[in-house]
Amino acid sequence: MADYVGALDLGTTGVRCVVYDRGLRPVAAAYRELPLHYPRPGWVEQDPALLVAAAQDVSSRALAQARLSPADLVALGITNQRETVVAWDRTGRPLGPAIVWQDRRTAPLCERLREEGHEAWVRKKTGLPLDPYFSATKIAWLLDHVPGLRERAARGEALVGTVDAWLLWNLAGIHATDPTNASRTLLYDLRAGSWDPGLRDLFGVPEACLPEIRPSVSVFGRTRPDFLGAPVPVGGVLGDQQAALFGHAAVEAGEAKVTWGTGAFLLMNVGGEPVVSRHGLLTTVAYAMAGEVRYALEGAVFVAGAALQWLRDGLGIIGDVAQSEALAQTIPSTDGVYFVPALTGLGAPYWDPHARGTIVGLTRGTVRAHLVRAALEAIAYQTYDVVRAMEADAGVTLAELRVDGGAARNAFLCQFQADLLGIPVVRPAEGEMTARGAALAAGLSAGWWPEPAAVRALPTALSRFSPRSHVPERGSWLTGWRRAVDRARHWAPDA
């Protein structure tokens, strides 16, 4: 009897496969790092073929580690970096690089569309602003710059999609996606639950090249025998941030989480009706299953953990990101140093593609510990900005903030975030909530549980960071942060 599910997590910097038992306990995991390429300032690309090769590699290694065969898996769930775009032909050959969600090359197109007066209509349809972050302008760029692609796409000979669609094509020969990924493209009508003809026309994307949209929790098909050695049902697809929300079992309106990974992404479940943001947030699909759709508000921060990676790889001032916690605690404060990590522009709630990274408050006494602590505090400040905007939009005050992602292992960051927000920060012992969400979707599709909330009964170890009762510095901290952000904004108006 198949008593396990697999979760494939295709992230920005790596691909992971985790095998879970019926208690949603991880029994094996494998990981492979992915390179990113930066051919020009503001451009971020990946090799699509490496995404598939890495997915096959980690899936095989995770099964081997658990001493399981494909027949032991009742289903496989997929979660993925979202707005990243791939184009390919029907043989599975990539037609150009994968344009990564961080890529800003389409900022001029977004500005032109805003100047033409399209943004209000686009936001009403999609819940999203006109920003290079989202997929439609990336698709348009590929259609315009890969020779012959537009004509082939119109005939259905070439296909486009987000990473989930690219993986499904290679795993199972299916050209499909789910509403959580579709709702990140600027081509999806939130209320109709389908690709919108007017949006397709605006961005010049032919219908024939787009994937079919299926519920997040459903059986998409079965993997090809050569992928794992035997067919396995694909029982769920979720964009990575929605998967993390799902993994936290945050299925009630008003529950929220932040994932601190390469970027920082905060989602709040708002229930069965979309909430239109008035404070620079996104409205998106949280998940869809059995005719039921749940929506979320989202604030996306482009650079979070990536700021620490930059300190390591770009400046060489730390040898390992894990050092950051101990270094930050060697000093009582940043001594007025602020780091605004707008290395690829600013996301929510500012949406400024021309902002640039800024470090202010340096003195002769500044040492590397100040920079490292400022980078960690910047993650918390950016999260604070999004939380306050989200509370204003939803008309609720968060009772707690659930955290996950690589940076959530940093206890200094968790405690600073609790102090800054004045509410508890709750961290599950299992850090891979994105993979857990994909596994939950796979288990639901296989009939393991009647509804997502049923997993709340499963035992889960939690760490709780309570805010200090009195933090007199909070006001001055935030004043300094806002001044620093003001200096980072609109730095490259002609970019």
Automatic annotation (TrEMBL):
Pathway assignment: Polyol metabolism; glycerol degradation via glycerol kinase pathway; sn-glycerol 3-phosphate from glycerol: step 1/1
Record-linked InterPro entries: ATPase_NBD, Carb_kinase_FGGY, Carb_kinase_FGGY_CS, FGGY_C, FGGY_N, Glycerol_kin
Residues noted as binding ADP in the record, renumbered to the chain: 12, 16, 262, 305, 406, 410
Residues at which ATP binds: 12-13, 262, 305, 309, 406
Protein activity control: Inhibited by fructose 1,6-bisphosphate (FBP).
NCBIfam families: glycerol_kin, PRK00047.1
Similarity field: Belongs to the FGGY kinase family.
PANTHER family: GLYCEROL KINASE (PTHR10196:SF69), SUGAR KINASE (PTHR10196)
Protein name per Swiss-Prot or TrEMBL: Glycerol kinase
Species per Swiss-Prot/TrEMBL record: Candidatus Bipolaricaulis anaerobius
Gene that encodes the chain: glpK
